[in-house]
Design goal:
With 737 residues, the protein is of the alpha/beta class.
Length: 737
């Protein structure tokens, strides 16, 4: 039988069943290799005390500190006992509490002056932070024989690695497990080509693993981190470079606009001139469309920067060349909105073959899941015969029944809303792979784009078209200053008095079905004594309260995702026509909705939305010539992280700046797109915001390596690392992209 490579050895063989089970279930560590790549989060120096002053609430922590004092209190008339121990680290003090029979062992072992590592979840009691029943391990000379010790003297040097831990498996237990598997690090296969490793002066991989887990000096840690960050960046960039290379080998039909055709006719009737940015990005797209392998381009731009116009011109160029173009939108509201705005922009050019239509024109059809049968049948017929050059739809476009005459271009709007399989299915409907344009209105910092969309060429629209107005944003602290909220509703009335319209956005729909679910969860919430004393505000209740209260006399209507598609469309039409003063909605209005006369937006419970989402929502106002106003209403206290987030949104209109802030707060999840399915992040050491230079350099090296050896035949170590990174799911994710 073949011997299992050392790094693929299951952990239960070396560590025993119970430990391996906890590692698998809570830390997603299954093999020796997984554990070797479970790096310390930070390092404690013996004699240097951790900062107790900076402990995060509700998180599992490991601290190194000294016992200052210990006292036993009795309660219940002497029947109950509680041990309170105060530990200190020079920066602050922290209380440890033990109850009942659990007090005897720590009372005997944790004497004033002794030092130990403590692990537990930080909670708050009587306005003081505490660890209840923490596990602990005495350190070095303070540890008596046979105690549960974290014997730092036996660890290399004076640096104690602190590992990301979980309940039932403290940092020092993980450290002992690492000791058991560390000899296997010698067999780690190095993914970097020798020339690259030597050229950049990196230590070999086995040495890096040894140094990251058991450093003697801070220089050891630095050597290891530099090397391991590079591995992550390089292997990922090789995966993306190989995909770009493979796409470049695929055949596609070159699509060039015909002189005097549909595109020229459309441009001639535009009532405005394109911005410099739109011209430049359009040129990049037209150059790509003219090549005989599929375009893969990401078009990102600020809310309202005119991405739809750029995409439409690309679609018209493809129709000019005899092909068809499909735009895939994530929601029916957005698909209908795109269909309406595109047919309006095109005028008689959207009525090809119809009476009064232009002879250069083409048919523009809408295809969504809720359409009636006759309209659906006609749309499908127009697509298969080629009568319709443009189709706008939701995922209904992907169904088996949908066939195209000659699909030349797929435009995916709001890429992050679509599963990979959905995009892949639509791309599979062309006789040859169609060109692909991915649009996103959530601006992505350059490094994230390089890491997440590294297989796509990127175009950025960062200019707003002429006629877009500035948006003023303010935080409204409803709890601290109720009169600010009253003033917010006055501002809405003032905008309506000027002939404008407003949105009010709530996080929840709020109906019987939801209330039942909420009631179910309420008991749990009460038990957990959460900070949220009430459920998030809901559209249905809020609209009723506003219509009877501060917005009485105004025409208030609601819009949410559970309404019938025809009703949604009717509300949006009335709002667009100015027949509704205030639209109370969920985030269904987040993308693509374009009503230039809407100038004010009040976002209720704004702290419940992410930074990018708030920026998206805000982009619905200020779309005309009048300035926009966005009010972020929150009950959160001034010092909370949620308020800091809202202040950041109110402080800048730069989406790229906000996306950096968002990413720094949330971390990047899994750049291979697996965050949604709960798979552990492939990035352990690399952070895409901080390691910009590493990612850029790794990308250059990867392109060179793949150009010289696309199948990596001469680099078996790199192939092995790729296989480990791209398990089956991820391989498919990258293949379909």
């Amino acid at each position: 039988m073949d011997r299992v490579p050392a790094l693929e050895e299951p952990l239960k063989k070396l560590l025993g069943g119970p430990t391996a089970k906890v590692m698998a279930e809570h830390l997603d560590l299954h093999t020796v290799g997984d554990l070797l790549h479970h790096y310390p989060r930070r390092y404690e120096e013996r004699g240097q005390l951790t900062k107790l002053a900076e402990l995060p609430l509700d998180e599992d922590v490991t601290v190194v500190a000294q016992v200052a004092n210990a006292r036993v209190h009795t309660f219940n008339g002497g029947r109950g006992q509680r041990l309170e121990i105060t530990i200190t680290d020079g920066s602050g003090r922290l209380q440890l509490v033990f109850f009942g029979r659990g007090i005897h062992k720590p009372h005997k072992e944790l004497l004033p002056g002794s030092r130990a590592m403590f692990a537990g979840k930080v909670s708050m009691f009587n306005r003081r932070m505490q660890l209840a029943h923490p596990t602990y391990a005495k350190l070095g000379a303070d540890a008596a024989e046979g105690e549960d010790t974290a014997d730092i003297d036996s660890w290399a040097g004076a640096l104690i690695p602190i590992y990301p831990a979980c309940k039932g498996l403290e940092s020092w237990k993980i450290a002992k497990a690492v000791d058991a598997v560390l000899p296997s690090a010698q067999e780690a296969v190095d993914p970097l080509p020798d020339s690259l490793r030597e050229g950049r002066g990196f230590v070999p991989l086995p040495e890096a693993l040894l140094k990251v887990h058991r450093p003697h000096t801070k220089a050891d840690i630095e050597d290891a981190r530099q090397r391991l960050k590079w591995d992550e960046a390089f292997v990922l960039q090789v995966a993306l470079a190989r995909r770009r290379h493979a796409d470049g080998q695929l055949p596609a039909v070159a699509r060039r606009p015909a002189p005097g055709g549909l595109l020229d006719a459309f441009d001639a009737k535009l009532p405005f001139t394109l911005t410099e940015g739109q011209e430049k990005v359009s040129e990049e797209i037209f150059d790509d469309l003219a090549t005989e392998h599929p375009m893969h381009r990401l078009l990102q731009g600020e809310v309202g920067s005119g991405k739809t116009m750029v995409a439409l011109r690309a679609m018209l160029a493809v129709v000019d060349s005899g092909g068809q173009a499909a735009m895939l939108a994530p929601t029916e509201v957005l698909a209908q909105q795109h269909h309406r705005s595109i047919t309006e922009m095109m005028g008689e050019l959207a009525e090809g073959g119809l009476l009064g239509g232009s002879e250069q024109g083409t048919k523009v059809v809408l295809l969504t899941g809720s359409m009636g049968m006759p309209a659906r049948r006609q749309a499908l017929l127009d697509l298969v015969t080629g009568e319709a050059g443009l189709v706008i739809g939701t995922h209904a476009l992907i169904e088996d029944k949908v066939q195209f005459h000659d699909l030349g271009l797929v435009v995916v709007d709001e890429q992050h809303r679509f599963g990979v399989e959905q995009r892949d299915a639509l791309r599979g409907k062309g006789k040859q792979p169609p060109h692909l344009l991915v649009m996103t209105a959530t601006p992505i910092p350059r490094t994230v784009a390089m890491t997440v969309f590294g297989d796509l060429e990127t175009s950025v629209l960062d200019q707003l078209p002429a006629g877009r107005s500035p948006i003023a944003s303010h935080v409204v602290p409803a709890q601290d200053k109720p009169h600010f909220l009253a003033r917010a509703w006055e501002r809405v009335r003032e905008e309506v008095d000027k002939g404008h319209q407003a949105y009010v956005v709530c996080p929840r729909i709020g109906d019987d079905e939801e209330e039942a679910k909420t009631a179910k969860g309420k008991k749990k919430a009460e038990e957990a004594e959460t900070a949220d004393k009430r459920p998030p505000l809901a559209v249905i209740e809020t609209a009723g309260q506003l219509a009877k209260g501060p917005l009485q006399g105004l025409r208030v209507e609601i819009l949410h995702g559970r309404m019938q598609p025809d009703d949604k469309d009717a509300v949006m039409r009335r709002f667009g026509a100015g027949e509704v003063d205030v639209l109370v909605a969920t985030t269904v209005i987040e993308v693509g909705v374009n009503v230039p006369n809407a100038t004010a937006m009040v976002i209720m419970d704004a702290d419940r939305f992410g930074v990018s989402q708030l920026h998206q929502l805000r982009g619905r106002v200020g779309r005309g010539s009048a300035p926009g106003l966005c009010l972020l209403v929150t009950d959160m206290p001034e010092a909370s992280p949620a308020r800091a987030r809202l202040n950041a949104v109110a402080g800048t209109l730069d989406g790229f700046e906000l996306s950096r802030i968002d990413l720094e707060q949330r971390r990047e999840g899994d750049v291979l797109g697996q965050a949604q399915s709960g798979v552990r992040s492939s990035l352990r050491m690399l952070t895409v915001i901080d390691d910009e230079e590493v990612i850029a350099a790794a990308r250059e090296e990867a392109v060179t390596v793949v150009a010289a050896d696309p199948d990596l035949e001469r680099l078996p170590g790199l192939r092995t690392a790729l296989d480990a990174l791209l398990d089956k799911d991820r391989e498919q994710y990258l293949d379909k992209g």
